[in-house]
Design goal:
Length: 479
């Protein structure tokens, strides 16, 4: 069967075909030194051309930023005919679209393949506001402050386990130093355990909870894994249904270090919540739980892994943070700007919209590219450089409105506007408090190069690309 011509109908068809034919391999995007983009040819006026097949290439996953730069500079609203998707890539445009909740709706119902259920992520306007207020206040402000000691306790207990000679996550090296894989030993499970505790899940359900989380996350990818995801979601709902009945009879509370009650847990709060006079159903309580867990696990894991990877590969900045504990906030936010665990968010426009001379017909799929907004040189100078001291990044109190004043801006990793991540504050606490404890415990931490994945040259570390750091092996001396 003849191969489909993916450039059919594309206005740049001729040039694309020529550029592809001239590239080292006719249909494979070459792998390039970091920071360089594949030359896709130029139009008669000198404008670089863009081949949407690059979005599916290994090179793009390895190093997307040079391609986003071409889009920002030359096609700030780009229509990719191959994937029938529009891309918005400049910081100011992404911000404006996120604030326009009526014009740009969030993903349509069913996009989580039924695994999470009907969540606020898939609602807009009034419906979204009512759902969002259900538990948002328990993840911020005083409520969050009261939970910090238990977040610390949890982090400390997980890291203390590394001292145990029997701990399966720790390798004892011949010279007495130790090596751990940060994900397995800490970052994969820590955010899930925090959420499990804050929600108010009984301790006995914790192991099952991690299984439900993993299965539901895999199920979001569709196909065979979706079946397991749906099954896990059903198991979770069965379990939550019995909890709902119990908590309606007997509310449960979170406690501080001294055993004092610090407020009802989130599950109890959800069980007491009424919308238009009706109590939430077990299905609705489950969907909220599933969303909080799914949204807070992989993301915070990614933030902790990327943060430590970036600090360990920039030893001068690691030394600065060690010397000045107050720099953790800046290190966390610069990590999210430089290498966010989330690339962007999909939206659909409710009416025809014109931006930068491109008319986007109502109902189109539009990707708001947070990765690109965070690397927009119109906002952040020298964006590819990791610099916790950069003067143009705002690292203060997180604001739903975002921050854009006096030459400083907040990053886009938590989004902005009505859908701003309600877990931003708690994930900040988890990453910063967890990292402080790690820093105290790890003497002379360094990357165990011999265990790490390599880049195409077989020498240097594999770049973070679009997927972030999957494994981070750290060797340290015992204190
Ligand atoms: C570094 C960690 C995190 C990152 C980078 C992140 C990022 C985001 C982003 C970009 C959105 C906006 C989605 C949109 O605009 O459509 C979002 C929404 C959300 N996040 Fe997070 N998140 C993180 C951690 C968490 C945590 C720890 C929780 C819960 C404990 C959480 C719960 C949620 C929920 C419930 C939503 C949906 C909000 C809505 O649609 O109104 N996130 N997150």
């Amino acid at each position: 069967m003849a191969e489909a011509d993916l450039t059919a109908g594309c206005p740049f068809r001729e040039t694309l075909t020529t550029a592809a034919a001239q590239s080292p391999s006719a249909d494979v995007v070459p792998t390039l030194p970091i920071g360089e983009a594949w030359d896709m040819g130029t139009a008669a006026d000198g404008t670089p051309l863009f081949d949407p097949r690059v979005f599916d290439s290994a090179e793009f996953f390895r190093n997307p930023y040079p391609y986003y730069r071409i889009l920002r500079d030359h096609y700030p609203v780009y229509f990719d005919q191959l994937h029938n998707t529009y891309y918005v890539t400049r910081f100011d445009d992404v911000t404006a679209c996120y604030f326009d909740d009526e014009g740009f709706n969030t993903i349509p119902k069913g996009s989580s393949s039924g695994v999470l259920g009907n969540t606020q992520l898939e609602l807009s306007g009034v419906e979204h506001r009512r759902r969002r207020n259900l538990y948002g206040q328990h993840l911020v402000g005083q409520n969050l402050k009261k939970r910090v000691p238990s977040i610390n306790r949890l982090a400390r207990s997980m890291i203390d386990a590394w001292d145990d000679i029997e701990d399966p996550n720790t390798i004892i090296d011949a010279n007495g130093s130790r090596t751990v894989e940060l994900g397995r030993a800490f970052a994969n499970e820590f955010p899930i355990r925090v959420v499990c505790e804050v929600l108010g899940f009984p301790a006995e359900a914790q192991d099952r909870f991690y299984y439900w989380y993993n299965s539901m996350m895999s199920g979001l990818g569709g196909s065979a894994a979706q079946k397991q995801g749906l099954q896990a979601r059903q198991d979770l709902e069965d379990y939550v249904s019995s909890l709902v009945a119990e908590r309606r009879r007997t509310p449960t509370f979170l406690h501080d270090e001294d055993g004092n009650q610090i407020g009802k847990d989130i599950i109890t709060k959800l069980c007491e919540t009424r919308i238009d006079g009706d109590l939430l159903s077990a299905e609705e309580v489950t969907s909220n739980i599933a969303l909080i867990v799914a949204a807070g696990g992989e993301t915070t894991r990614g933030a902790i892994m990327n943060l430590w990877y970036l600090l360990l590969t920039h030893p001068d900045q690691l030394a600065d943070v060690r010397a000045d504990d107050a720099l953790w906030d800046a290190a966390f936010h610069e990590t999210l700007r430089h290498s966010s665990p989330i690339g962007g968010q999909p939206r659909h426009n409710s009416h025809d919209i014109e931006m930068h001379g491109v008319t986007i017909p109502a109902g189109s799929l539009i990707q708001m590219v947070d990765f690109s907004a965070n690397h927009d040189e119109r906002v952040f100078a020298d964006p590819e450089t990791f610099n916790i001291h950069r003067p143009d990044l705002y690292s203060g109190k997180l604001l739903r409105s975002g921050y854009r004043k006096d030459g400083r801006s907040s990053h886009m990793a938590f989004g902005v506007g009505p859908h701003l991540c309600p877990g931003a504050w708690i994930s900040h606490q988890e990453a910063v408090e967890g990292s402080r404890i790690l820093m105290q415990r790890l003497r002379n931490p360094r990357i165990a190069m011999e265990r790490m994945a390599r880049d195409i040259d077989g020498e240097t570390l594999r770049p973070m690309g679009t997927s972030g750091v999957r494994e981070l092996w750290i060797t340290y001396d015992r204190t």
